[in-house]
Amino acid sequence: MGVTDEEVRDYAIYLGVDLPYEEYLLPIAKEALLAPLPPQWVEHVSASGDVYFYNKEKDESLRKHPLEDYYRDLIKAAQAKRAFQEKEAESKGGAGSGGAAVVKDANIERADLHEEVRRKSSGVLGFENTPIHEASRVVDAGVTIEEMEEMETYLGVDLFKEPDLLIWVYRAVVAPVPEPWEEHYDAEGKPYYYFPPADRSTRKHPYDAYISQKIAACRSEGKAVSDNTHMLKVCSAN
């Protein structure tokens, strides 16, 4: 199904894009407009002609596309990235001069992140100048600085050097648990994920591999920090 430029622009405004100043976000709006329905969701039209979406497994109906909030959050993350880049450009690299970044540890499990990052970041001077802190001023979707910082650690991303990957760090934080996966907690309160069809469980979130692949793809493409429009076309693709 094709869409016109006008339809994309109208939908971008609906999602919270400030046109014409944020035209670099149009690729995300187009992706959202063309997004297929998740499994178990179907589109219907009411007797009055209004479109709604129905989840036949949960017997749940929505007036908006099930992925609309996801794309709104993605746009907020992209706006946060741009805000950080502009601030960094104004300060000529001063954002990283306030103190050391949190040390990355590839052996950290997702379930251990909260405690590990709290330990490593305690007493680190200059935390208020990190990319995550700048992003948090724009992203307002129930995501905390600590959640973003710990996910940055888990994914092995350094947002001082790779601010274009902020979108994927944010996506990892807000990623839902897809059906038929189920999220559970062990006796220590740590999350794990159970897949009933195969009767198996894992500590890794079902979307971890996908997000890691996207990060690797963005890195291999050599995305420049200043090349925002092209970066979004590649790094926000499903």
TrEMBL record:
InterPro entries referenced in this protein's UniProt entry, alphabetically: ABRA-related, WW_dom, WW_dom_sf
All residue ranges annotated as the WW domain in the record: 35-68, 175-208
Transmembrane segments: none
SMART domains to which the protein is assigned, alphabetical: WW
The name this protein goes by in its record: WW domain-containing protein
Organism the protein comes from: Palpitomonas bilix
